[in-house]
Design brief:
It contains eleven helices and 19 strands. The chain is of the alpha/beta class. It folds into three domains: about 30 residues, no CATH class; about 210 residues, Vaccinia Virus protein VP39 (Rossmann fold); about 130 residues, OB fold (Dihydrolipoamide Acetyltransferase, E2P) (Beta Barrel), CATH 2.40.50.1070. Bound molecules: S-adenosylmethionine (SAM).
Length: about 400
């Protein structure tokens, strides 16, 4: 098989990533791949600054850019082909499998394990799910790689039969991939355009230890984690530096997921509270906090309801959630919305850090908080070769 990608990157970052799947027209996921990488970043900067023009950030820090190859820590591979000859990658318009096991944006550990997973699935004899005929078993394989090289491998199948067969063959996978510390099977019986169902059976382990530079996070099968580990580390460190610079003693991390921001910001003199809807993510955050021995509370709940309920804070309130002097928000693409932005606008919180993967919803939310000025902004190129980006801003309440 031809190598998928060849890297022509000069030290200045003017190069571009070449991909034979893109050139052949068989995969268009990296829509901007033909644009030199430095140009991609400068185009995103222009677009993002335009969208946030009304918010008028006082200072744009240099964009945080890492590699343009092997940056993804998670692959969501559709299973195609036939029993004994599966493909792992995407499905084309006729729902035929396109094998992307050599995809150049996936981390080295994912590229190395994908052919082994394909061999394992071939040996089970299970049929890939046929979307047109609505028959067959194997739908997707999700692989997540930790910096240590440890892996979480999740199979998404249609029926209990698929689950039983994978369970009965599991030792072969454990032997072939000793770094797979978490293995599970997810059942998605419905014919739906989604990547996983709600039922998950663990075959090995419980959570993948994501050993970042200063903090170990714990990812369970359905937990969110930023897809680009090195850029996520840059983002967490930037936000921690902002929180230190405003000397926040009491911090809220809303939409905290498995706790990345809260755990990077926690220190012996700072009280940190994380809020998140996913119970599993909160369990993981608590494990990390325990390992670090830090003073952090993680609560399951809706971010908006939590903020409204504790707005203004009060000494001695039942949950002991003193008024924060800084609030971090990192919502899904839809943003924090009218209710939470209004609650923050009506609060007397001194600082807000807003990290967003959607500048359009960020701009709308900022327009609802005119009492805050955007002191600093920084783009994090979390998703090279696509138009997507992460942007974080530090807000200060106007005097
Ligand atoms: C962009 S992720 C951020 C996660 C985390 N800050 C991180 O860096 O990994 C958004 C998170 O918000 C959570 N979420 C979605 N809706 C929510 C809500 N209404 N209240 C609280 N958390 C919510 C999701 O489960 C997800 O973990």
């Amino acid at each position: 098989m031809m190598p998928a990608t060849s890297l022509t990157l000069a030290p200045t970052g003017v190069g571009r990533l070449h991909c034979h799947h893109f050139d052949a027209g068989s995969c268009h996921s990296c829509a901007l791949i033909e644009t030199p990488y430095r140009q991609q970043v400068s185009d995103k900067e222009s677009w993002c600054r335009e969208i946030l023009a009304e918010a008028a950030p006082q200072l744009w820090l240099p964009s945080f850019v890492d590699g343009m190859a092997e940056f993804r820590n998670r692959a969501k591979l559709a299973v195609g082909g036939s029993a004994g000859q599966v493909t792992l990658g995407i499905l084309d318009q006729e729902f035929h499998g396109v094998d992307l096991r050599d995809c150049g944006i996936q981390s080295e550990a994912i590229r190395a394990v994908t052919p082994i997973i394909a061999d394992f699935l071939d040996a089970t004899g299970l049929e890939p799910y046929d979307v047109s005929a609505r028959r067959g078993e194997l739908k997707f394989v999700h692989v997540t790689a930790a910096p240590s090289g440890d892996l979480m491998i999740r199979f998404v199948v249609r029926t209990q039969h698929g689950l039983d067969v994978l369970r009965s063959h599991r030792t072969a996978l454990f032997d072939a991939v000793p770094t797979a510390t978490v293995v599970s099977v997810n059942r998605l019986p419905e014919h739906k355009a989604v990547l996983e169902g709600s039922e998950e059976e663990m075959l090995r382990g419980e959570s993948l230890r994501m050993n970042l530079d200063r903090v170990d996070l714990h990812l369970r099968p359905q937990s969110f984690f930023q897809t680009n580990t090195d850029v996520a580390i840059g983002l967490y460190n930037q936000v921690a530096a902002w929180v230190d610079s405003v000397a926040a003693d009491n911090l809220w991390d809303l939409y905290c997921g498995v706790g990345g921001f809260a755990l990077y910001c926690a220190d012996s003199s700072r009280h940190v509270t994380g809020v998140e809807v996913s119970e599993q993510a909160i369990e993981s955050a608590k494990i990390s906090a325990g390992e670090l021995g830090i003073d952090a509370r993680f609560l399951v709940g809706d971010a908006t309801e939590f903020a409204e309920e504790h707005l203004g804070g009060r000494a001695g309130d039942p949950a002991g959630l003193e008024r924060p002097d800084c609030v971090i928000v990192n919502p899904p693409r839809r943003g924090i919305g009218a209710r939470l932005s209004t609650a923050l606008e009506d609060s007397d919180f001194e600082h807000i850090v807003y990290s967003s993967c959607n500048p359009v919803s960020l701009a709308k939310d900022l327009a609802r908080m005119p009492s805050y000025t955007v002191e600093q902004a920084r783009i994090f190129d979390m998703f090279p070769h696509t138009k997507h980006l992460e942007v974080a801003v530090l807000l200060r309440r106007r005097q």
